Amino acid sequence: METNFWPLNQRRLRTGTHIRELTASVKLNYKSFIQPVFVDEALSSARKVNGLNDVQVETADSILYSIEQDTRNGISKFLLFPVPAIRKDKEFDFSFASHVIRRIKENFGEEVWLAADVCLCSYTTHGHCGILNQDHTQLLNSKTVEVLSHYASLLANAGADCIAPSDMTDGRIGAIRNKLDALGYEQVSIMSYAAKFSSQFYGPFRDACHSAPNTMGLQNRKTYQLSPFNSNDALASAIRDEKEGADILMVKPAALYTDVIAKLKQQTLKPVAAYHVSGEYAAIEALAEKGLLDREAAHVEVWAALQRSGADIIISYAARNAKEWINNAII
Ligand code: PBG
Fold it and tell me: Domain tally for the chain?
């Protein structure tokens, strides 16, 4: 006979907000958040992005106001995506990106932590993340790594606190680390897009950065980004990046890949960042606009899921609301 069977004993922990707060295994903190920001050289005033409420593509001037506003809301960590006015396929001009970083650091100094995306997709005419061969059928690995490490060193020189390579070529982390160290930028960290999947959910971002692949050759990024059908490749790539010197390992998209976050967390002692990408963000916004969910609560629920699965850092387009929304959240 069962004498210790009390069918309702778990529910005592759910009886009210106080006890639910006390016993929560996940405690979110806005200090773990990074806000992505876009700056486009070709714009004369900030523009909205299709699907991304509350996120604008800024000019080199308006970005300063937007960062100022964010710091007042408690957000001090940013991931910068610079978009140059002129696209070409060689002899890239990286001066706009450096200029923007210099201005941000001149204005805010140590008050902000600035990570700079390193990729060529908004630089190239074909929208791919690196250099292509003549007939555009292949992305050339070593040539791309060479250009990206040079680019990374310019951004470090301009004052970036962290370099975030999102191109997904092999060997770029080691090459960038060597280059940064050789030039005396030992303190600049690297946040690797270590497990970046080839995803449908980058749509709104590509609108913001004009970075969708557009060539008759390689029509998608499947030869360099990870397959959603292969988590082993994701883990192997992330561990490889760690060995090459990455300081932070990122998984992206986030909410669809919590299995990868959880597995990676078990295999590394490095901090894991989860990037809730533009399409994931826009999906929540679209449902909220239809009145089908509560916007704030839905974002907070996703953040809890990411942290529960093992993410130490959350990159979200709603990071600038994190302090307020987490504070208001009814657990
Ligand atoms: C560029 C890059 C992309 C994102 C970050 N860096 C797009 C892509 O790979 O096509 C996506 C971010 C987002 O959707 O929020 N390599």
Answer: 1
Instruction: Give the residue numbers spanning the domain of 205.
Output: 26-328
Q: Looking at 48-52, 66-70, 227-231, 242-246, which range is the least confident one?
A: 48-52
β pairing state of 47-49 and 52-58: antiparallel
Name the catalytic one among 196, 263, 265, 270.
196
Is 246 domain-assigned? yes
Catalytic residue list contains 196: yes
Q: How far is the CA of 35 from the centre of ligand 1 (A)?
A: 14
77: CATH: 3.20.20.70
Q: Is the CB of 307 under 6 A from ligand 1?
A: no
Span from the CA of 232 to the centroid of ligand 1 (angstroms): 21
Q: b/e map of 114-132 (b: 16 or more CB within 10 Å)?
A: bbbbbbbbbbbebbbbbbb
The reply to whether the predicted model has a pTM over 0.85 is: yes
